[in-house]
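Re: [ENG-882] Designed sequences occasionally contain unexpected residues at chain ends

Forwarding the minimal case from QA. Structure tokens:
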């Protein structure tokens, strides 16, 4: 029986790989995709999401979500994101996330109601539990839980791409999704729903290499070719700005959350912990995980490691299922 999920994205290069993986997996029934502001503004993340859904010809509704974090942008003194240095390769500026994905402009449109309204309406009437996979800032999910807390009873698990214990990426203490909306992240982690955090410690360990991209291309499918393009772009950025322990490799954070639903073994050293999100000053957006044995009530499962060999095998199996031949 396929697992029902709702994917919440700020598409984004790695979000795009996650959306394709969810669409192609026979183990997943993708009920909807909800966009949120994060990597880019809500117009761009929504358009990019529509483009990926249309590229794979999937009949999956897309709902436009929140255009700003809950409160962060109201606080003028909140930590600014460090300006990222421009990376130029072959005379072209390369970014981890392009404004628009290099695939055809969408001709399909998002649904009429917002993502938050969809979450509340869908979950209120849900007859079976559903899993939320949130791979962008947690604004939509937090807003839905604030509108109607009873929807938590219909959520089997919330898988969150976010956080970092020994690894950060947007400030010395924070990972981007949590940093962009720390208050939303805390509301989700404290919601009482089973929360599995997939932080940078796991996504950097479960990285994708240039050789893995060759495996994707050898499948000669639309999804395999597009995933290879996105991962190769990410490898250029990681080599320039955040080299991994494995040479010529990139974290493809969001897709690891989908792979976890298919093969939980892609996450390693998963511990039940108490996690607090920092709101202010230098700990803004930090996932403060209390490793002490006698800590307070535990509120999430946190993956401290990942398995890159299992991860790439899951992705190759999924892209091989794509009936659309190469780009
Ligand atoms: O820090 C990585 C996360 O931030 C990923 O979800 C990426 O898409 C960005 O949203
Ligand atoms: Ca993302």
């Amino acid at each position: 029986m396929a697992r029902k999920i709702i994917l919440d994205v700020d598409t984004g290069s790695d979000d795009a790989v996650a959306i394709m993986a969810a669409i192609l997996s026979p183990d997943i029934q993708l009920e909807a995709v909800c966009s949120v502001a994060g990597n880019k503004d809500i117009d761009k993340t929504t358009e990019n999401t529509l483009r990926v859904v249309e590229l794979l010809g999937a009949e999956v509704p897309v709902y436009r979500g929140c255009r700003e974090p809950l409160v962060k942008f109201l606080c003028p003194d909140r930590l600014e994101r460090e300006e990222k240095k421009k990376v130029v390769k072959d005379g072209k500026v390369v970014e981890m996330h392009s404004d628009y994905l290099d695939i055809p402009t969408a001709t399909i449109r998002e649904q009429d109601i917002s993502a938050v309204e969809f979450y509340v309406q869908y979950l209120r009437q849900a007859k079976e539990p559903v899993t939320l996979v949130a791979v962008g800032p947690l604004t939509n999910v937090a807003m839905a839980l604030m509108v109607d807390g009873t929807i938590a009873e219909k959520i089997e698990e919330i898988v969150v791409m976010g956080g970092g214990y020994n690894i950060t990426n947007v400030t010395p203490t924070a990972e981007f999704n949590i940093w962009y909306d720390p208050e939303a992240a805390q509301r989700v982690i404290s919601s009482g729903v089973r929360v599995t955090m997939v932080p940078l410690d796991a996504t950097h360990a479960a990285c994708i290499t240039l050789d893995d991209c060759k495996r994707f291309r050898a499948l000669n499918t639309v999804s395999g070719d597009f995933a290879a393009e996105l991962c190769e772009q990410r490898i250029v950025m990681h080599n320039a700005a955040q080299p991994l322990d494995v040479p010529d490799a990139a974290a493809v954070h969001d897709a690891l959350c989908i792979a976890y639903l298919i093969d939980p073994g892609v996450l390693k050293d998963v511990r039940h912990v108490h996690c607090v999100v920092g709101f202010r000053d230098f700990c803004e957006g930090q996932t403060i995980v209390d490793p002490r044995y006698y800590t307070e009530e535990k509120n999430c499962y946190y993956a401290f490691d990942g398995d890159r060999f299992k991860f790439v095998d899951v992705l190759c199996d999924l892209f091989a299922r794509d009936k659309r031949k190469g780009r």
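QA comment: On inspection the terminal residues look reasonable. The chain has a mean pLDDT of 95. Proposing we downgrade this to a documentation issue.
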